[in-house]
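User: Hi! I have a protein structure encoded as tokens and I'd like to know what sequence might fold into it. I'm fairly new to this, so please keep things simple.
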């Protein structure tokens, strides 16, 4: 049976842990607000960019691009976007559960985030490239990832590219989602995986006539890679919002659990101390009665 000294030490240890988790909760809450705001602000631009691309494509006759050419899928690349650090609940484990379902022999992986790279290496899967990104993801970081997989696709190293990331729904809910990235095929209405990924933009019943300068091939050829780069950037923002939200909730739960443990240990300490006092009083009383 634990002594009162042992219980006091455990209470002190749990209090120290609670202070750490409380501080981490407050830091994550501050970062969460910024990350959520950045992710939400980017969604209207992503939707408008896709609408503009679809509208322009309806006015371009015979437009084609190497990134739109579909071919039989023998080798697939999957971009796995995870966090760099842990202590964010089941965010990464839920993501890696989806990775485990993918075929090792026909899939190569590109990772964004240290946790994803560690998991790919630990499970002995093929890691084609590894990237990192900051707490406030920059467009240049997303462009580097996007260009790398575009080059892999154009060289014929892979026949399709998908992105697996934790989709931000709200503070309490983050859902792993696999969205297609390449080939583009028909211009998609998906705002970087925020809305339905397979919904196709409908052309207007009476499409407007557009004039392109210098020509539609040049204009759309420049817009297409930019839309992919921005989609990648939006997904990084969504992942950061998911990470900070999951970490804030995890640290809050840890703090609440620590407080409950402190209550239980304090109750146990008081019961043990009361038992010791009662035992000492009985010993004194018995000694006095023996002395007569």
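Assistant: Happy to help. Inverse folding works backwards from shape to sequence: for each of the 292 positions I chose a residue that suits the local structure. Here it is:
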């Amino acid at each position: 049976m634990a002594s009162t000294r042992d219980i006091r030490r455990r209470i002190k240890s749990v209090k120290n842990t609670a202070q750490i988790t409380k501080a981490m909760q407050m830091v994550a809450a501050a970062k969460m607000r910024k990350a959520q705001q950045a992710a939400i602000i980017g969604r209207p631009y992503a939707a408008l960019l896709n609408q503009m691309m679809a509208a322009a494509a309806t006015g371009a006759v015979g437009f084609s691009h190497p990134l739109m050419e579909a071919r039989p899928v023998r080798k697939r690349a999957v971009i796995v976007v995870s966090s760099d650090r842990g202590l964010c609940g089941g965010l990464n484990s839920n993501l890696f559960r989806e990775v485990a379902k993918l075929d090792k022999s026909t899939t190569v992986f590109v990772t964004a985030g240290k946790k994803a790279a560690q998991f790919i290496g630990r499970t002995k899967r093929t890691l084609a490239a590894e990237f990192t990104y900051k707490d406030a993801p920059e467009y240049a970081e997303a462009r580097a990832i996007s260009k790398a997989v575009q080059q892999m696709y154009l060289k014929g190293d892979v026949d399709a590219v998908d992105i697996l990331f934790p989709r931000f729904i709200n503070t309490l809910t983050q859902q792993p989602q696999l969205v297609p990235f390449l080939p583009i095929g028909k211009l998609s209405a998906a705002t970087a995986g925020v809305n339905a990924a397979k919904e196709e933009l409908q052309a207007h019943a009476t499409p407007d006539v557009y004039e392109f300068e210098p020509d539609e091939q040049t204009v759309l050829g420049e817009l297409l890679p930019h839309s992919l780069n921005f989609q990648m950037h939006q997904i990084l923002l969504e992942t950061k919002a998911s990470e900070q939200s999951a970490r804030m909730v995890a640290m809050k739960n840890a703090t609440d659990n620590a407080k409950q443990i402190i209550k239980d240990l304090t109750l146990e300490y008081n019961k043990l101390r009361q038992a010791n006092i009662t035992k000492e009083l009985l010993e004194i009383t018995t000694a006095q009665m023996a002395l007569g």
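A useful reference point when you look it over: Strands lie at 76-81, 107-112, 127-131, 160-170, 173-182. Feel free to ask if any position seems puzzling.
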